[in-house]
Amino acid sequence: MAVTAQQLSLVAEIYETVLDANRWQRLLDKLIPQVSARSAFIVVQDGGYPDAQFKAPSSDIAPDIYAEYVEKYQAYESPAFQKLSRRPPFEWTSDEEAFGRPVEKIESSIWLRDNFGVWRRTGTRLNDSPAWFDALTLHFPPGRGNLTPAEERRAALFLPHLAKAVEIARPFQVLKSRYQAVLDALDRFQIGVMILAGTGTVIVRNREAERILDLDDGLRLDSRHRPIAPRGDGNGALGRAVQQACLTSAAESTAGGALLAVSRRSGHDAYLLEVVPLHGGGELEQPVRGAILFVIDPANRGVVSTQGLQLLYALSDAESEVCRLLIDGYTTNEIADIRNVRPETVRGQLKALLAKTNSRRQSDVVRLALKVNLPVEGTTRANGDE
Description:
By secondary structure, the protein is of the alpha+beta class. It has helices spanning 5-14, 24-31, 63-85, 95-99, 107-116, 149-188, 207-215, 234-249, 307-313, 317-327, 332-339, 343-356, 362-371; strands at residues 39-46, 54-57, 93-94, 120-125, 132-140, 192-197, 202-205, 220-221, 227-228, 258-262, 271-280, 288-296. The strands form three sheets. The protein has a five-stranded antiparallel beta sheet with strand order 2-1-5-4-3. Strand 1 and strand 2 form a beta hairpin. The longest helix is centred in the middle third of the chain and has 40 residues, at 149-188.
């Protein structure tokens, strides 16, 4: 069978799901026309590692319809899936074979036909491991049967790649789940974190890292999802640091971490990057070795809180707010405009602020505020704002 350029592109896209399970739906949407199906569903189950489990429907499967179907028929269909789990990989099992009776006698099929426009279904296992059960199911509209021989041949082109993608993704799913709590905590301290596989590819990143990458201001991901710093020599230094950290994690080097400054196109203060080796093994079936990349954006001052300063030096709400605006880089006149007061009022508040904090200059106040800062996202400021 001749393989088309579109099919080759789809095979390549299958492996993009390894690092991002959210891509499965889009992939299934592209797979459906290849086999003339109405919809599709992939399920990944793992008795040993629940964190690795996920289910992905094609976009035609509405969440409310699927939820109602599961509530009504999950127990009813369990024996059929048990039978499917005992079949060899890549061998299709029709609904009638799985249930052992004509489709007209299968209650869940009748419900799907009446509520979702699906009449016939067929499924296949994607592996032969007794430790887990991964499967792909295809659904067809009324008026046609299950897979034709020609459709089976087209499907056979993709099945080994689907199986391999799921196999590779399994430890990454576990890794992402188990690191997520740490990433969420670092988010609150406005530290960008990217966990990299041994190839330098980003497996998972937190929200602050997402924000920094979205800026595309000196740091971004290349086509292989590796972090690069295009400006100056930052790119080479970052690439070498990541490579050395990955080699160290694989016991092929003794190099430690690296601290880098990456300049930005906008002219804002450079990003501060730290690259350290990562060895995630032990409880993971397939050890993950790579690196962790920490990113700090000095220009992101919007999260600086003056609560600590207000508490330590008994600042009024107005003085605390003036301090915050100083940190954000506003001048006296600009602060007066923002607060809708006269510049003389702001100067008086600044004088009181200097006296209470034993500071000689405004820059001393800013440094002091940053030193006692509570750099936590969502910290309530003294004036009640978030």
